[in-house]
Design a protein that fits this description.
Blueprint: E1 3-7, H1 12-21, E2 26-31, E3 50-53, H2 59-69, E4 73-76, H3 85-88, H4 90-109, E5 118-122, H5 148-167, E6 170-176, E7 179-180, H6 189-198, E8 203-205, E9 211-212, E10 215-216, H7 217-229, E11 236-240, E12 246-247, H8 248-259, E13 266-268, E14 286-287, H9 292-298, H10 306-321
Parallel strand pairs: 1-2, 1-4, 2-3, 4-5, 5-6, 6-11, 7-10, 8-13, 9-14
Antiparallel strand pairs: 9-12
Helix pairs in contact: 1-7, 2-4, 4-5, 6-8, 6-10, 8-10
Length: 322
């Protein structure tokens, strides 16, 4: 049975992936100790996985844990990820996202037969940043990150590809678009809209005309499962996306129709109260990816349509709201 190490296992994708792999592999998960840590994503996995408290920015501790576990495969999903907060705390993002990634790779390189162990890196669509084209981005485009967060991810993205070329490390880079289907966090765009609308409360959309590519969580996780198992993934970079762009305001209108929410309570060009600021010149007007490569090479299936995904998300939060 393969030993699979998931960093950020209490996070959104890490937790969902752990549920898919439990019982099929020896799953180990890393999370950073924190008083505010939400353990609910792992609440039903007690006794089925192994968890380890670790700050990946601590190299010695990271190397020691890798020597102890000796994972066959690593999915590196741990990161500081709120884009807007990275403008206020860039040093924290560098410490966790850059140093943490390098520490994991260096620790992996110290293991026997490291070239036989796969390292999957959770990059992001944000690494493409500000592009001059407005058609779904392909993997060969130059990276033009437009936030401290995106810069840290672009570093990891490039570092992994260097490690494949120079050290022969078995690496896979996943550039995924905005994903929804969270069960515990209402602070992200679609979950925020659903929660406010279900409570019949005004919503605020700061960038209504921005075009984004929103993907359902199961499609995201299934892409990682393929990347774990398929030999064809070695050394590759994959966009993971629906390839369908939609304006933020249209997502809100679609949800309003599903929920039966008064569209007059949707306010544009103003972010919610206490929402972190961001330089306006850094905000991409278009961020949609072409995922034909992962479909053709790994057989990733057609992603769930936005309408079906939104209805699933609404049904979940409606059941939670009562």
């Amino acid at each position: 049975m393969n030993k699979i190490l998931i960093t950020g296992i209490t996070g959104f994708i890490g937790g969902e992936l752990a549920h898919k792999l439990a019982g099929k592999a020896e799953v180990h998960g890393i999370f950073k100790p924190s008083r505010s840590r939400d353990y609910r994503p792992l609440s039903t996995l007690e006794g089925q996985i192994h968890t380890h408290e670790l700050d990946i920015s601590d190299y010695a501790a990271t190397e020691n844990l890798l020597q102890k576990i000796k994972p066959d495969k690593i999915v590196h999903a741990a990161a500081l990820s709120p884009v807007r907060a990275s403008f206020d705390n860039p040093l924290d993002y560098l410490r966790v996202n850059v140093n943490g990634t390098v520490n994991l790779i260096q620790g992996l390189l110290k293991l026997e037969n490291y070239q036989e162990r796969r390292f999957i890196f959770a990059s992001t669509a944000e690494v493409y940043g500000l592009q001059t084209v407005e058609e779904p981005f392909v993997e060969t485009l130059a990276l033009e990150p437009s936030s401290p967060y995106a810069c840290t991810k672009a570093f990891g993205d490039m570092y992994l590809r260097m490690c494949h070329d120079v050290y022969g490390l078995d690496t896979v880079v996943m550039r995924c678009v905005n994903t929804f289907g969270r069960k515990y966090d209402k602070s992200f765009f679609i979950e925020y809209l659903i929660d406010r609308m279900l409570h019949d409360t005004d919503v605020h959309i700061g960038a209504p005309e921005s075009i984004r590519d929103y993907m359902w969580v199961d499609d995201h996780v299934n892409a990682y499962l393929l990347a774990l198992d398929k030999t064809e993934a070695t050394g590759e970079v994959f966009n993971v996306s629906t390839g369908v762009g939609v304006r933020n305001i249209d997502v809100a209108y679609q949800l309003a129709d599903i929920i039966g929410f008064d569209k007059n309570k949707i306010h544009t060009n103003k972010y919610p109260h206490s929402y972190p600021g961001r330089p306006i010149t850094s905000d991409q007007p278009y961020l949609v990816l072409n995922s034909s490569k992962i479909r053709n090479l790994l057989g990733w299936p057609e992603p769930t349509s936005l309408d079906v995904s939104l209805r699933r998300a609404v049904d979940y939060w409606r059941s939670e709201t009562g």
